[in-house]
Design goal:
Blueprint: H1 3-16, H2 21-51, E1 64-67, E2 75-79, E3 82-84, H3 89-108, E4 123-127, E5 130-135, E6 143-147, H4 154-159
Antiparallel strand pairs: 1-2, 2-3, 4-5, 5-6
Bound molecules: zinc ion.
The site of zinc ion (ZN) has 8 residues, from loops.
Length: 167
């Protein structure tokens, strides 16, 4: 479990004291869902800025949120075939990006994003606790192209993941 999630769990404990498992799961799920919406805003803006295409419409239900029938109240957020149930900003951002990428491919038949140096489509990877777009091209066997979140300052991203209203 990441530092970020552990910190949040200790904040929850400080604020609410002992709470039931169900209540905790509710908070956990609400936070995951909220992060997913923020992540979607970041990624869909990136798609629009780079391709002029919008990730909207009935064809793409970007947040399909449901309660897991086996595990009870912990909700899972699905984006196409990608899903996430942990309120970890880096992981949520990565999963949302994969879902959006899949949508852009299916719906617009467009490879997004692509490396400007090679002809490859990029894929989500994780580097130095940041979700990044990576290309498999080049002599080194691949290179990181950029962070998924275009705002360079990671601390701004991290501290504004949950309360930031949609831009
Ligand atoms: Zn490349």
């Amino acid at each position: 479990m990441s530092e970020e999630v552990l910190t949040w769990m200790s904040e929850v404990h400080d604020e609410f004291g002992e709470i039931s498992g169900d209540e905790f799961c509710e908070l956990w799920t609400t936070r995951t869902f909220s992060m997913a919406r923020s992540a979607f805003e970041v990624i869909q803006k990136s798609v629009f800025d780079e391709t002029g295409k919008r990730v909207v419409g009935e064809e793409f239900c970007y947040v399909n949120y449901f309660r897991d029938p086996e595990f009870g109240p912990v909700g899972v957020v699905r984006f196409k075939s990608a899903e996430v149930s942990t309120p970890d900003w880096v992981e949520v951002l990565g999963v949302v990006a994969e879902g959006v990428q899949e949508f852009v491919m299916d719906y617009y038949v467009t490879v997004w994003p692509a490396c400007s140096r090679h002809s490859f489509g990029l894929h989500v990877d994780y580097f130095d606790e940041t979700a990044v777009w990576k290309c498999n091209g080049g002599p080194e066997g691949g290179h990181v192209v950029r962070a998924l979140d275009p705002s360079a300052d990671r601390s701004v991203v991290r501290s504004s993941t949950i309360d930031r209203p949609p831009v």
